[in-house]
Amino acid sequence: MPEALPDLLRADGVLFDLDGVLTPTAEVHMRAWKLVFDEVFERWGLTPPYSDADYFDYVDGKKRYDGVASLLHSRNVEVPWGAVDDPPEAETICGIGNRKNAAFAASLRAEGIAPFPGSLALVEKLTAAGIPIGVVSSSKNAEEVLGAAGIRSYFRVVVDGVVAEREGLASKPAADMFRAGAEALGVDPATSVAVEDATSGAASASAAGFGTVVGVDRGTGADALRAAGATVVVTDLDAFLTDSAPAEAPRRSDSEETA
Description:
Elements: E1 14-16, H1 25-44, H2 52-59, H3 64-74, H4 93-111, H5 117-128, E2 133-136, H6 142-149, E3 157-159, H7 161-167, H8 176-185, E4 193-196, H9 199-207, E5 212-216, H10 222-228, E6 232-234
Parallel strand pairs: 1-2, 1-4, 2-3, 4-5, 5-6
Helix pairs in contact: 1-4, 2-3, 3-4, 9-10
């Protein structure tokens, strides 16, 4: 039997991850990371070679520098952290992260980006119903990506890597970013919904107390998302576009203003 879906129109608010949930930028990130890590691994003689599994296990959903540190730690490699303004050629955590960001930015400018059709349709449906929505993304490129995709105006709040650095928020899977997103949106996590495609993000939302955590399986794996805290898993957000989904999400307060 198909998995019963919550009715997102009865949530107090909905917070979306960006890359891999709203836009296919996760693929652009994956290619940029592979380009950088393939070169680093070859030059440093690291084994086993970098793989897509490494991306999902150590990088996906985390803040950029935390992802670099996590992956290198998996190969028992320690390098200086450096500083956020390190040049891309610097052999530091920040330098490698900045190298990746340069590759990502070049790809985004060259190829552009468009939202997933199902995600855009759901965002439009929630907006029409007056449901407060926001974005919680570890990426420092979130504002640029949302603007390039033409969807920034839908979201009341964006808690991204820039905000996390400024406010000292711990990287996903810690609860900090989703908790901050709920506070900024003015909603109770227990009666709200988080939407994530990464295990670190699902764990973050679960730790922040979200009553419903929707996992979007675009390669991470349904079992892995559930183990991390997803309460329901879909392969695309168009699953929520029918009007027949059982109403299992927490109820919104009748007195709450949603305009």
